[in-house]
Specification:
heterotrimer, A mainly alpha, B mainly alpha, C alpha+beta, A: mainly alpha, Cytochrome C Oxidase, Chain A, 16 helices, globular, C: alpha+beta, two-stranded antiparallel sheet, 6 helices, 4 strands, about 40% helix
């Protein structure tokens, strides 16, 4: 871009990643909306773009936009943390184009080919049909190459420059993140073994490595946005890593209750997933504590100005601390014990939890990082909210919370009718789906989905225009 | 016909709502407890609000108990829930202690 | 300068993080070895000798499967009974059965079952759970699906439905036509039958046991 204040190539690359991430976020919401409409009007796009296709794109776009935004966030913070330009930045740029091209091809094949014959060719070139990691095998290999290149850049930069605590955590975390993807790439006829390893990718991503990633980004954000003390923040980061990995790795057990794995996973899963909310509570306290402390120090000096240098981003970071606790913590905890999970596993409760947890734990902080990038790109010292910021933040957050509540109500009907009373049969399933509360829940979910999607347009408008507003401190 | 044997460990249909509400309240009340404790310590709230914090902890523990008993949890899980209740009680103390220490050492 | 406390020492927490992560990972890997042994697929001689495997061999399609309460474990488990014809045969060799299961499992992925249905409870929630679909009373002799598809056995009814799902609507929400061939349908039904024989620790609870009655009342 011509009028950019960015001198670092790494930060420029980060803005590319954020741009694609935001686009894919839009695609996620659009196809989510299609799927939501199909719950209400079952004939909508029937045999043209069926629910299975819409949902596949919905959840794949979700995973991919978050990965793009995560790569972008790392490329953004690396020069700040290490004090040098990212090593291998040209490779990074090349891989960015490879990644973007691959994702485009994959999505087009999803939309226009949809399903293939029951053979290996379909697995290689169409999709693998495994929730969240449907990408066909050629793309799997491509993603692995891209991820390795990214990790290599991170390591080379971290080792050459100043390796801060945040960078150290990221290095360890990102290599685990990339390595775990490999456990989801093979094919087996044994569905139990299939799902066992599938969870290694999904669970160890979203309940371990991604959470630690969020911890690192939150640490970086607190230092850059409110000037929190690095020593305090980094100590906290290590405590968070301890708590997150300590509870999250064996929290895996809660996915091994019913897939054919032995019964001892009940105890392991119950124990460690009961501990999983604790780090989320701790992260929440930490953000508020640091904010209070820093504001207190400023006030003590007699200055009555906010310590926050980027209002929109900080709002999203606080929403992250709160949303992580609410979505992953509360919405996860209330159906995690095996005694109750027997009835809630695979119902709309899971869907409610999925929506709020992905949004609260990840979408929020990554949007926050996008605002930090906008601030840096426009050379703004203190960035204030615009009307669009407020519309975007409240509509997206309100919409997702609304969808979650609606899905929770629907899920309650699902659990009570389909599971507890009807024993989960075909007939029981449709009895549950026909319930008045269920149907209304789905109506409200659609309404709230539209609210979220509208909020997305405010977000895009704001990200594109907030840098030009005149009420910032430059 | 409903077979008697298959019903022994089932959660009663009427109990589901109580279970979901109480397990949600565990973390909500727990959050209030932790929040009030931290807020009092960093002087955002007056000291007399502290007993309310502990009251919320008692409610948390009660909700854990209610949830556990309606779910018919086994002995090991019951013990884990007791540990969780004590863990929540200690958590903000430990967090505050460490935060304070590290801040003292880095006083500017 | 205040006293240095171990609790506010970065290195202490860094080491704790490393040790706890390492310990949890080692435990997970160790448990993975144990679980992998228990969930490996059985074979034909296991079935013939009555050896119970959590995931039986593919030739389980030669046998009748039921889902019964285990008093000791206090939940239901799949029980493999006497021989039962599957598409007119009950003598599939290990090789033939494995080939059918392979086709079915591949089909379950390439047809994207998991983005509408749940398998072992995982997937999307737009269509019924398939974990024990083979045992669903709807497909049995008293259910509606055999009459609807004009077939006289469960497996043929299922295969017919899979090939022409939108001809047999059971609900306003219909299954779309996924171009499933007759051979693929046979494989998919074998896959479903095999999946119903997996010991899922009693999930789903009370499957097919309650018809019309209300739990706990």
């Amino acid at each position: 871009m011509a009028n950019s204040y960015l001198t670092s190539e790494s930060k420029k690359l980060a803005t590319w990643y954020f741009t694609v991430a935001a686009t894919l976020f839009g695609a996620q919401l659009l196809f989510g909306l299609v799927a939501a409409i199909q719950y209400v009007i079952p004939g909508f796009l029937f045999e043209i773009l069926d629910f299975s296709v819409a949902r596949m794109i919905h959840i794949n776009a979700l995973v991919v936009w978050m990965v793009f935004a995560m790569f972008g966030s790392v490329y953004w913070l690396l020069p700040d943390e290490t004090g040098i330009e990212t090593v291998g930045i040209e490779l990074g740029k090349l891989l960015f184009w490879v990644f973007t091209a691959a994702v485009t091809v994959v999505v087009l094949v999803y939309i226009f080919v949809q399903v293939g014959a029951a053979d290996e060719t379909s697995i290689w070139f169409i999709h693998e049909g495994r929730e969240y990691i449907e990408a066909p095998r050629w793309a799997d290999l491509g993603i692995t190459v891209v991820a390795l290149g990214f990790v290599a850049n991170l390591f080379m930069t971290g080792m050459k420059g100043n390796r801060s605590g945040i960078v150290t955590v990221l290095m360890a975390d990102m290599i685990a993140f990339a390595g775990l993807y490999l456990t989801g790439m093979f094919y087996t006829d044994n569905i139990t073994v299939d799902q066992f390893w599938w969870w290694w990718v999904i669970h160890l991503w979203v309940e371990a490595t991604w959470e630690v990633f969020v911890g690192s980004i939150a640490a970086y954000g607190l230092i850059t946005m409110i000037g929190a003390h690095r020593k305090v923040v980094e100590m906290w980061l290590w405590i968070e890593v301890t708590m997150l990995f300590g509870s999250g790795i064996l929290g895996m057990g809660h996915h091994y209750f019913w897939i054919g794995t032995p019964e001892y996973w009940w105890e392991i899963g119950a124990l460690f997933s009961a501990l999983e909310p604790l780090p989320l509570v701790a992260m929440f306290i930490h953000v508020l504590y640091d904010w209070g402390k820093m504001q207190g120090e400023e006030s003590a000096k007699g200055k009555d100005v906010s310590v926050i240098t980027n209002k929109p981003a900080f709002t999203w970071f606080v929403l992250n601390a709160f949303g992580n606790f609410l979505g992953a913590g509360i919405w996860g905890f209330f159906h995690t014990l095996p005694q109750v999970n027997l009835y809630t596993h695979g119902t709309q409760f899971t869907s409610a939890h999925g929506h709020l947890a992905f949004f609260g734990a990840y979408a929020t902080i990554l949007i926050g990082m996008m605002y930090i990038a906008v601030q840096g790109k426009n050379g703004i010292k203190v960035m204030n909210n615009t009307t669009s910021t407020i519309f975007a933040t409240s509509m997206i957050t309100g919409g997702v919370v609304g969808m979650t509540v609606a899905l929770t109500v629907a899920g309650y009907v699902d659990v009570l009718v389909t599971r507890a009373q009807m024993g989960a049969t075909w007939a029981g399933y449709f009895d549950g789906q026909s319930g008045a509360w269920f149907a209304q829940g789905m109506d409200w979910r659609l309404v709230m989905g539209v609210v979220t999607f509208t909020g997305f347009f405010f977000l895009v408008k704001d990200l594109l225009s907030i840098g030009k507003a005149t009420h910032h401190v430059r | 016909m409903v077979n008697e044997a298959i019903m022994t460990q089932d959660i009663l249909a009427d109990d589901f709502l109580t279970i979901f509400v109480s397990s949600t309240l565990v973390l909500v009340f727990g959050g209030f407890y932790v929040g009030i404790y931290t807020a009092v310590k960093v002087k955002l709230l007056k000291a007399w609000t502290m007993p309310f914090g502990y009251l919320f902890w008692i409610l948390t523990a009660y909700c854990l108990y209610l949830m556990g008993s309606l779910m018919h949890v086994n002995e090991l899980t019951a013990k884990a829930l007791v540990v969780a209740a004590i863990g929540i009680l200690l958590l903000p103390h430990a967090v505050y202690y460490m935060q304070d220490r590290v801040h003292e050492e880095n006083e500017h | 300068m205040a006293k240095k406390s171990v609790w506010s020492d970065n290195r202490f927490w860094q080491r704790s993080a490393a040790w706890i992560t390492g310990f949890a990972s080692v435990l997970l890997i160790w448990l993975t070895f144990d679980t992998s042994g228990q969930i490996s697929m059985g074979n034909d001689s296991d079935l013939k000798n009555g050896v119970t495997k959590r995931v039986p061999g593919p030739t389980v399609i030669n046998y009748k499967i039921t889902y019964e309460m285990d008093k000791k474990r206090q939940h239901e488990v799949p029980v493999i009974g006497e021989k039962e014809k599957f598409f007119g045969r009950d003598d599939y060799s290990e090789e033939e059965a494995a080939k059918l299961l392979h086709l079915g499992k591949l089909g379950s992925q390439t047809k994207n079952c998991m983005n509408c249905h749940t398998l072992l409870g995982n997937g999307a929630y737009y269509a019924p759970d398939l974990t024990k679909a083979w045992l669903d009373p709807a497909w049995g002799p008293t259910g509606s699906m055999q009459a609807m598809t004009g077939k006289s056995t469960k497996e043929e009814a299922m295969a017919e439905f899979l090939q022409h799902p939108s001809q047999y609507p059971t609900h306003a929400r219909m299954m779309p036509n996924l171009g499933i061939t007759a051979e693929e349908a046979k494989g998919l039904v074998a896959f479903l039958k095999h999946m119903s024989s997996i010991d899922t620790n009693g999930f789903p609870r009370n499957f097919g046991k309650i018809q019309g009655a209300v739990n706990g009342k």
